[in-house]
Amino acid sequence: MNDRRKLPVIPISPEKCTAVTIQFSSDSSAPKPVKKTGPVSTEQLQAAVRQALGAKASLGERPGLLKDTETAYDNRLESTIRPKTLADYIGQSALKDSIQIGLDAAKSRAEALDHLLLYGPPGLGKTTLAMVIAQEMGAEIHITSAPALERPRDILGILMSMKPGSVLFIDEIHRLNKVAEEILYPAMEDFALDRTIGKGEGTKILRVPLPRFTLIGATTKAGSLSGPLRDRFGLIYRLNFYSEQELSNIILRSARILNIEASPEGALAIASRSRGTPRIANRLLRRVRDFMAVKKAGETLINEPIAREALDLFDIDPIGLDPTDRQLLKLIIENFSGGPVGLDTLASTLGEDPRTLEDVYEPYLLQAGLINRTPRGRTATGNTYRHLGYRLPAGFAEQAQLELESS
Ligand SMILES: Nc1ncnc2c1ncn2[C@@H]1O[C@H](COP(=O)(O)OP(=O)(O)OP(=O)(O)O)[C@@H](O)[C@H]1O
Ligand SMILES: [Mg+2]
Known about the structure:
The chain is of the alpha/beta class. It has 16 helices and 13 strands.
């Protein structure tokens, strides 16, 4: 590990490309130029880079939770506070331990790490971990996203440019099309590409060898991955929501990097409203800093009262729900008598995309016990009624039990 290793600035230019390659430099010289692979439209490039590097606009990002107040400056800060080494990567200790073992073993054999699938809700650190792994392996990482790999030549181009030990990171891997998947199978298994040469009777399949590389796939929906693709990953890990203490450590680390003073209690107050998610924790930290600068002139320390006052003002409630979450839960209670209500009905009443609702809003609400998924749809729980200050309807416990039994 070398502290001086730096992540280069990644220029998002309107040129055509399918993947961004990041080379980790071990000196403090200017970042190496970013290589671009393959001809693809500007939109695809921007989508790939945004999605891969976290500043995503489509799936995976929620409109609420102060996202709309993010600026380009915030997005730049995001890359400064992203941990660069496994030691800086806070929490997920079981996952880190086994990755460390994998890394040590791969290094001692001077081989590439096994292909790795990371899954879990948005903002928990999948992209970050992929970059950390590449950095720890001293390898370059090619970052792309499945929607950018529409045509066979997109994925072929990237695979042909792999070097021994390189990491290929494919975000939203559950969205890969069939053709791209089939190209990946021999590439992952045998480190080879099967190219068809000629037409008709004279058709031949030519096997082109590839260097040993590591594919890291990330997805918010492991269930949507095809079986054959999932089976080709040697390591499959789920990222879990973070504890308040872990989030508070993440906040204190980010505060140090951003030159923000925060007390442990102030950090914990932000952590407790961060929905178990580092991306949200960092975002709330920046908003509390803004609040302090505007409303508390003269104060420089984020302490507990300031953190609470700011987050109350931003309408983030004590367990981290924002107005959209509360509106969703209220809808289930008020419009659908506590449910069950189907995902599509709920989404259209809320004016949201069902996939965003399922992948972005629901995981935390499920984990917090504020929503249940049953075969007949979503239902409110006793916690939902209590948290929002509603009285439990008569017969609620019996009805809930029936729903659970039928699920
Ligand atoms: N373990 C961690 N320690 C410290 N900071 C973290 C950790 N995990 C994530 N972060 C911070 O949270 C931010 C979001 O992480 P990241 O972009 O890796 O999430 P993701 O799982 O890829 O999300 P998505 O599914 O939306 O792509 C990062 O910029 C990073 O600063
Ligand atoms: Mg990501």
